[in-house]
C-alpha cells in the first residue's frame, strides 16, 4: 500500500525541473525561436540569449574570461567530448592517460575505447573510502601523460576527491590537462573550478531539463570535434544550438549554485538523521563515509536482495536506487563498492539514497520505519 507521502530519494539519478526553468524553456522556445546562426532579427535575438546563458554559467562558477562553454546533451556527451576530443587532438604529444576505477561509465568507456586504439591507460585504484590518494597519482604521472580524468564526487557512494591536490600534481607536467566529471558536485559542493581545465555538467541533475548539459573548458585547451557539420559551438559540436535548453541550463545552474552554502548544511543534517536511524537496523553495511558528500548515503544489505527491497519500497511510494541508474541495466552489481574492497554480497546489494530540495529530516523517520517493515516482510 502506498504511503500518503511519497519520498523521492534518488536525486543523484535525476531531479524534478524547477518550475521557473520549465517556464523559461517554454518562453524561449515559443517566443525566441530563431536560429542563433541566422543573421536576421530573430537569429540575433537568439544569439544574444545564448551568449547571456554562457555568461551566467561561467559567473555561477566564479569564472569569467579565459573559459568556453560548449553546450551538449548532458554530462555523458561532455565527458566524451573532453576525453576523446583531447586525446585525438594531442595524440602526438604522448599516449599515456590516467583515470580511476570508480569513474562513471561515460568516462570509463572513453578510456576503454582509447585503450583499444593504442593508448596506455592507468586506472588508479581508490582507497577504502573511495578516494584517489594523491601519492598514487604522483606515482602514475609520466612525461608521456597527456590527460588525467578524476571525478569530483562519486555518483554511487558520494566519495569526494581532493581536486585541489590532484590538479596541482597534474599541472606539474606541462603536457597534461586535468579533466573532472563534476556532475554530482554542481550546486552541492564548493569546488574551486579554476583548478580544472575541463569539467562536465548535466542539466537534469540540477533541476534543469533532460537533454541539456555542457562542457566548460579553458580557452587554450584545444579539442578535436566528435560531431561534424555547420561548425556551431566553436566547431566542437555542430548542429543548430538548442537555445532554450541552453538558457534553461544556465537558469538551473545559477539557482543551485547560489544555494550551496545554506542547502548543503540542511542536507548534511538530513543525512545525519538518516544515518543515526539506519545505524539501528541490523544487516546494513555502510559504503559512504563522513568525509564524503552529504547528498549521498550508500549502504549494502548483508542478508536481503537489494533489488527486491527497492521494489518493495517503490510500492510504498519511496524511491531509492540500487546500483546507479546508468549502470543498473548492465549488471546488477556495483563496481564502485567492489573497488572499496567489499565482498560480492555487499557489491551486489547496494542501496543508494540521494538527497535533494524536497527532502526533510522527517523523511528519515518515515523511511527507516518502512525499511524496517520491508526487511522483516521479505525473505
Ligand atoms: N557522470 C556522473 C558522475 C553521473 O552521475 C552521470 C549521470 N548518472 C553522468 C556522468 C551522465 O550524465 P547525463 O545523464 O547527463 O549524461
Structural features, described:
The chain has 379 residues and is α/β, with parallel strands linked by helices. It folds into two domains: 7-16 and 259-377, Alpha-Beta Complex (Aspartate Aminotransferase, domain 1), CATH 3.90.1150; 19-258, 3-Layer(aba) Sandwich (Aspartate Aminotransferase, domain 2). 39% of the residues lie in helices and 15% in strands. It has twelve helices and twelve strands. Strands 2-8-7-6-5-3-4 form a seven-stranded mixed β-sheet, sandwiched between helices. α1 packs antiparallel against α7 and α8 packs parallel to α12 (362-377). It is globular. The structure holds 4'-deoxy-4'-aminopyridoxal-5'-phosphate.
How would you summarize this macromolecular structure in one to three sentences?
This protein is of the alpha/beta class and 379 residues long. The protein has helices at 19-31, 41-60, 75-89, 105-116, 134-140, 163-170, 243-258, 260-278, 306-315, 335-339, 344-348, 362-377, and strands spanning 7-8, 67-72, 96-100, 120-124, 145-149, 177-181, 198-202, 213-218, 284-286, 296-301, 318-319, 350-354. The chain folds into two domains: 7-16 and 259-377, Aspartate Aminotransferase, domain 1 (Alpha-Beta Complex), CATH 3.90.1150.10; 19-258, Type I PLP-dependent aspartate aminotransferase-like (Major domain) (Aspartate Aminotransferase, domain 2, 3-Layer(aba) Sandwich).
Amino acid at each position: 500500500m502506498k504511503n500518503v507521502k511519497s519520498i523521492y530519494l534518488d536525486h543523484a539519478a535525476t531531479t524534478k525541473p524547477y518550475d521557473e526553468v520549465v517556464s523559461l524553456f517554454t518562453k524561449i522556445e515559443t517566443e525566441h525561436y530563431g536560429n542563433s546562426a541566422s543573421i536576421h532579427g530573430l537569429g540575433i535575438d537568439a544569439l544574444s540569449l545564448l551568449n547571456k546563458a554562457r555568461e551566467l554559467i561561467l559567473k555561477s562558477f566564479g569564472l569569467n574570461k579565459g573559459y568556453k562553454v560548449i553546450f551538449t546533451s548532458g554530462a555523458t556527451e561532455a565527458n566524451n567530448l573532453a576525453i576523446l576530443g583531447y586525446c585525438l587532438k594531442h595524440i602526438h604529444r604522448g599516449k599515456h592517460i590516467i583515470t580511476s576505477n570508480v569513474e562513471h561509465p561515460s568516462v570509463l568507456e572513453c578510456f576503454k575505447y582509447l585503450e583499444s586504439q593504442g593508448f596506455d591507460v592507468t586506472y588508479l585504484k581508490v582507497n577504502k573510502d573511495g578516494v584517489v590518494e594523491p601519492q598514487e597519482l604522483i606515482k602514475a604521472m609520466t612525461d608521456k601523460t597527456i590527460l588525467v580524468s578524476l571525478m569530483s564526487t562519486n555518483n554511487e557512494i558520494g566519495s569526494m576527491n581532493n581536486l585541489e591536490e590532484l590538479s596541482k600534481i597534474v599541472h606539474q607536467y606541462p603536457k597534461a590537462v586535468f579533466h573532472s566529471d563534476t556532475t554530482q558536485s554542481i550546486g552541492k559542493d564548493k569546488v574551486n573550478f579554476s583548478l580544472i581545465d575541463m569539467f562536465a555538467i548535466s542539466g537534469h541533475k540540477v533541476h534543469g531539463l533532460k537533454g541539456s548539459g555542457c562542457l566548460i573548458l579553458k580557452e587554450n585547451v584545444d579539442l578535436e570535434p566528435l560531431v561534424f557539420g555547420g561548425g556551431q559551438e566553436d566547431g566542437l559540436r555542430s548542429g543548430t544550438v538548442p537555445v532554450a535548453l541552453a538558457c534553461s541550463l544556465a537558469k538551473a545552474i545559477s539557482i543551485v549554485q547560489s544555494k550551496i552554502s545554506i542547502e548543503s548544511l540542511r542536507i548534511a543534517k538530513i543525512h545525519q538523521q538518516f544515518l543515526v536511524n539506519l545505524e539501528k537496523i541490523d544487516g546494513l553495511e555502510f559504503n559512504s563515509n563522513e568525509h564524503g558528500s552529504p547528498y549521498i548515503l550508500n549502504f549494502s544489505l548483508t542478508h536481503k536482495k537489494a533489488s527486491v527491497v527497492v521494489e518493495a519500497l517503490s510500492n510504498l511510494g519511496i524511491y531509492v536506487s540500487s546500483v546507479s541508474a546508468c549502470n543498473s541495466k548492465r549488471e546488477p552489481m556495483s563496481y564502485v563498492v567492489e573497488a572499496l574492497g567489499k565482498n560480492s554480497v555487499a557489491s551486489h546489494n547496494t542501496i543508494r539514497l540521494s538527497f535533494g530540495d524536497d527532502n526533510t529530516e522527517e523523511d528519515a523517520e518515515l523511511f527507516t520505519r518502512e525499511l524496517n517493515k520491508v526487511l522483516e516482510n521479505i525473505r
